Amino acid sequence: MGIGVLSKITVASSIVDLDVKKLLFKQLAVDSVTALGTNQATGTVLTAGKNLVLAADGAVGVTLPVAKEGMAITVVNTVSGQDLKVYAASPDTINAAATATANVVAAGTDAVFHCDTIGHWYVRQTGVGTGTATSSTTAELNTLNGVTAGTVIASKAIVVDAGIKATGLLNMTYGAGTTSVAPVNYTAGTNLTSAVAGATEYDGKVTYQTNVTSSRQVVDTEQFICLTANYSASDVATAQKVFNSPTNGTLTLAATTSYMFEALYMIANTGTTSHTWGTLFTLGGSVTSIAYLAEAYTGTTSGVTITPMSACQVAVATVVPVTAASTSATEFVSIKLRGIIRANAAGTIIPQIQASAQPGLSGSAGVTVLAGSFFRVWPVGSNTVASVGNWS
Predict the structure, then answer these.
(1) 371 belongs to a structural domain
(2) Cα dihedral 226, 236, 281, 332 sign
(3) Most confident of 67-76, 218-227, 306-315
(4) CA angle 150–156–161, rounded 5-degree value
(5) CB of 262 within 8 A of CB of 338?
(6) Boundaries of domain holding 18
(7) Domain count of the chain?
(8) 93: β partners
(9) Looking at 93, 125, 157, which one is the last position of a domain?
(10) What are the Cα distances from residue 254, in Å, to 251, 284, 341?
(11) Do the beta carbons of residue 250 and residue 360 sit within 8 Å?
């Protein structure tokens, strides 16, 4: 309501006394004032219900009237690029701050101060807030007011103060991002005590999505490597990498994080020296534990004949033979891995294979890791996580 509305209100003098009438005029009036003074005692005293404040420079301020229960005072900082300080009249307080502590109304925004009890004001800024962005001015940071659609300057930043809950936002479109700025970036925090349907959370280890109340789920954010062409491995009896593209076939694991993994290694060999194939990992950090199932198929024709499978449960990162011995000059091996590794210290991991003897010591040497071989890994929580979801 403004003063124009007040002129339409007829109040019988026999019902409302003069003091109440004066209070109504003050609460409904709009006033323009100049900010002065740098503390509670010297700030310009506000007398109207809505105050358009001029001359804010980040130092000067205004002082609210004595807090009486039910009052609401609107303070509008009309200055672009400068904060406005708002003080309570002594000994009144604003929010949980001390009586002489100023509440800051950011440049180009407004705030409504509500007196919820005698001597105390409660306030929450209604403007977006200000910040620093190399691609925008402070005024442009304040163009989103929640009332007029489409007022945000294209390609500029909007900064919301920490801890502010924004609701009712619809049809949000994120920018394309740049090589140094992501369209969306979550800050690691503490997960909800009780998962709420529709919530997205990030605890610094993994991202969670809750589709049904109390049923938090881990979002699959996997990393993988896959050969797009055959890779000529070495004809040796020592450990060697499975992947060569990127060159080192190495992945870095984060500290104190559990990862589930799955792999398929497809190997062709022409050497005829009797040998088995084993799987292993070279670790650059340390692990709390590793456990996986290795399933291996060995045949003499690639992908045509049905061959018996061998399976092996593995709980170490060092080499473990997973196939039977072979002397075939047309050996084809498929090895599947599924398991979990719990990283302690951050470090690298290299998926590897190792022959028990040099296959090409007799016959024609030739060990090839075939295109389509892959290794995929995804984080599931801390290195002690036991479950995520509505388990009981």
Answers:
(1) yes
(2) positive
(3) 218-227
(4) 90
(5) yes
(6) 3-125
(7) 2
(8) 120
(9) 125
(10) 10, 11, 11
(11) no
CA count, 13 A, side-chain hemisphere, 356:
15
Nearest by Cα to 33 from 2, 71, 78: 78
What residues contact 359, with CB distance under 8 A and at least 6 apart? 235, 269, 270, 271, 272, 273, 275, 331, 365, 367
- The β-bridge partners of 85 are 61, 104
CATH of residue 235: 2.60.120
**For range 263-272, the mean pLDDT:** 96
Residue 256 pLDDT: 96
Pair (230, 370) in one structural domain: yes
Helices (runs of H) and strands (runs of E) counted in the chain? 3, 26
48: left (phi > 0), else alpha (psi -120 to 50), else beta? beta
Question: Would the CA dihedral through 349, 352, 354, 358 be positive or negative?
Answer: negative
**Predicted local distance difference test score (pLDDT) of residue 70:** 83
CA distances from 232 to 216, 279, 288, 338 (A): 44, 18, 33, 25
Report whether 62 contacts 35 (CB < 8 A).
yes
> CB–CB of 259/341 below 8 Å?
yes
Asked which of 100, 125, 150 is the last residue of a domain, the reply is: 125
**CATH number of residue 65's parent domain:** 2.60.120.640
pLDDT at 11 over 90: no
pTM value > 0.70: no
Question: What DSSP line would sit under 243-281, residue for residue?
Answer: --SSTT--EEEPTTEEEEEEEEEEEEEEE-S-B-EEEEE
